[in-house]
């Protein structure tokens, strides 16, 4: 009896120690991964590079979906390079960056960035185009990108305050089929010509 009880206690403590150890390893791993992201996406995902999206403050669901899409190469991975850190100037792309991340890593990193603040880009925009863009947005995009595209929990990204050059590229990727897109968004996007796209990105870029 005594032996059985002791074994039970022993077993419990082993499980607990194992649990703590796993948490520490996972936390250290997240720090390391997030450090890599910061070399391009900036501190806490508040990118200051106009061709690299701000990702801090996006919903965890949106981030997981897109990281998985890069991993499966369903989403195009345009070439880019490290902007700071020890690899500064080295060429790479998002597919290479997520290649060795496990599903658990992806979830942890997405959780981390979803808890950061979305710091809107301060950038130049064309006020006339922005006004036209707002009309297009209200008419075609507001249904899914609510409150002018400012709501993280819509799980569709937040175009409001995102960098204009990045948005321009994202729109081209959707239009050309290089990036997966909701069928209903495709229908709306097909109604927008090149000038309309430019108006839309200026509208989103005008939101501070
Ligand atoms: C070498 C620079 C670089 C590094 C390092 C990097 N990224 Fe990126 N990231 C980019 C670029 C450039 C894009 C835009 C690519 C595109 O148009 O698809 C991007 C796009 C993304 C997107 C899509 C955002 C959106 O709005 O659709 C997510 C999510 C993302 N990165 C997360 C991460 C995470 C997490 C890490 C760290 C594990 C990371 N990135 C590391 C350059 C980088
Ligand atoms: C039926 C719903 C729906 C409509 C309508 C819609 N979208 Fe989207 N949009 C989505 C979804 C879903 C995503 C996320 C795709 C993903 O996870 O990569 C998205 C993503 C985006 C992104 C990428 C954000 C990022 O950070 O990478 C942009 C930009 C965008 N939409 C612009 C528009 C514009 C402009 C319109 C109107 C012309 C529009 N959308 C209409 C559902 C919609």
What this model shows, in words?
The protein has helices spanning 2-41, 60-71, 94-98, 103-114, 127-141, 146-149, 164-176, 183-189, 194-206; strands spanning 80-81, 91-92. With 208 residues, it is mainly α. It folds into two domains: 30-114, Cytochrome Bc1 Complex, Chain D, domain 2; 127-206, Orthogonal Bundle (Cytochrome Bc1 Complex, Chain D, domain 2). It has a two-stranded antiparallel sheet with strand order 1-2. Helix 2 (60-71) packs antiparallel against helix 4 and helix 7 runs antiparallel to helix 9 (194-206). The longest helix has 40 residues, at 2-41. The protein is globular. It starts with a helix and ends with a helix. Mean pLDDT is 91; it is low at 1-15. The structure holds heme C (HEC) (2 copies). The site of one heme C has 23 residues, from helix 1, helix 2, strand 1 and helix 3. One heme C binds at residues 53, 62, 65-66, 140-141, 143-145, 156-157, 159, 162, 167, 170-171, 182, 184-185, 188-189, 192, 200.
Strand order of the largest sheet: 1-2
Query: What is the strand content?
Result: under 5%
Number of domains: 2
Can you list the ligands bound to this structure? heme C
How many strand units?
2
Figure out the total of helices. Answer: 9
Shape verdict: globular
What is the CATH homologous superfamily assignment of the largest domain? Cytochrome c-like domain
Give a short account of the largest sheet.
Answer: 2 strands, antiparallel
CATH architecture annotation of the largest domain: Orthogonal Bundle
Helix fraction bin: 55-70%
Average pLDDT, to the nearest integer? 91
| CATH class bucket of the largest domain | Mainly Alpha
User: pLDDT below 50 for ≥5 consecutive residues: which ranges?
Assistant: 1-15
The helix/strand order is HHEEHHHHHHH
- Termini Cα gap: 69 Å
Please identify the structural class as seen in this structure: mainly alpha
């Amino acid at each position: 009896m005594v032996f059985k009880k002791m074994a039970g206690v022993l077993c419990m403590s082993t499980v607990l120690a194992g649990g703590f150890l796993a948490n520490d390893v996972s936390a250290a791993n997240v720090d390391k991964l997030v450090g890599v992201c910061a070399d391009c996406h900036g501190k806490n995902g508040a990118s200051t590079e106009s061709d690299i999206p701000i990702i801090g403050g996006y919903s965890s669901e949106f981030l997981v979906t897109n990281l998985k899409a890069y991993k499966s190469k369903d989403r195009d991975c345009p070439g880019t390079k490290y902007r700071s850190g020890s690899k500064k100037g080295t060429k790479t792309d998002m597919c290479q960056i997520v290649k060795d991340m496990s599903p658990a890593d992806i979830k942890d990193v997405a959780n981390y960035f979803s808890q950061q603040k979305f710091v809107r880009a301060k950038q130049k925009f064309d006020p006339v185009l922005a006004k036209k863009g707002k009309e297009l947005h209200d008419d075609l995009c507001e249904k899914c990108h609510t409150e002018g595209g400012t709501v993280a929990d819509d799980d569709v990204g937040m175009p409001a305050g995102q960098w204009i050059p990045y948005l321009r590229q994202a729109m081209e990727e959707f239009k050309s089929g290089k990036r997966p897109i909701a069928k209903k968004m495709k229908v709306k996007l097909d109604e927008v010509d090149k000038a309309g796209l430019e108006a839309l990105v200026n509208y989103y870029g005008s939101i501070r």
